[in-house]
Amino acid sequence: MIKAILTDIEGTTSSISFVKDILFPYAEKNLPAFIRTNRQKNSVRKELNEVAKISNIPSHNVEALITKLIEWIKADKKTTPLKSLQGMIWKKGYKNADYKAHIYNDAIQKLVEWREKNIKIFVYSSGSIQAQKLFFQYSLYGDARSLFNDYFDTTIGVKKNQDSYKKISQAIGISSGQILFLSDIESELNAAKNVGYDTCWVIRPDDSEVDIETIQSDHQVVSSFHDIKI
């Protein structure tokens, strides 16, 4: 019996294009000024020190760190300090109503339905926990944070590593066999399935080049949350 849903965001609950075409360019455009203005704040300094350590750049060389961060944004690196800084920048955009986070209609409907059935719902995304909360707070459907019990990001482990899913199961106190993981990335689903999760491959026609009609998979495969079987 499934007691919990663990869901990805980008390409699963929400359109990849919103992240790629709106959030990433917004962060890239605003990052240099944000870093220069806020680099002495503890929260920003902490992440810049991590960038310096990872990239072997002196922490005092702010312009070089900015250049490296822009490179990572363009390459869609899942680096934890980048994701944290992006979350800080996106917060301004959300609060200024520069954009609202996209959620598929079928996703919001099923999330509400599962919540009403007392199924716990958790988010696991490469975006920082702060960014995840902002995403659902400022969505097209208003503040949707009440739908979720908790959030996980790469601080618990990378999404293609099966140990990450073991840690999440332990953190929420629900056995792996009672958790359904939703994602658009097969390698993430494989990692979760290897430790006992039930899994569902969400293939959005407008986001994926995978042909859902011909695919053969060990995972449940759907194009809409309405088709997910629990």
Q: How would you portray this structure in words?
A:
The chain has 230 residues and is α/β, with parallel strands linked by helices. It folds into two domains: 4-15 and 101-227, HAD superfamily/HAD-like (Rossmann fold, 3-Layer(aba) Sandwich); 19-95, Transcription Termination Factor Rho, Rna-binding Domain, Chain A, Domain 1 (Orthogonal Bundle). 46% of the residues lie in helices and 11% in strands. Strands 3-2-1-4-5-6 form a six-stranded parallel sheet, sandwiched between helices. The chain is globular and about 55 Å long.
Going by CATH, the architecture of the largest domain would be: 3-Layer(aba) Sandwich
CATH superfamily of the largest domain: HAD superfamily/HAD-like
Unreliable sequence segments:
none
Helix content: 40-55%
Beta-strand portion reads 5-15%
Number of strands: 6
CATH topology of the largest domain: Rossmann fold
Taken in chain order, the helices and strands follow as EHHHHHEHEHEHEE
Strand order of the largest sheet: 3-2-1-4-5-6
End-to-end gap: 8 Å
CATH class (first level) name of the largest domain: Alpha Beta
Mean pLDDT: 95
How many separate domains make up the residues? 2
Structural class: alpha/beta
Count the DSSP helices. 8
Rg from alpha-carbon coordinates: 18 Å
Q: Sheet bearing the most strands, described?
A: 6 strands, parallel
> What best-fitting shape do the alpha-carbon axes yield?
globular
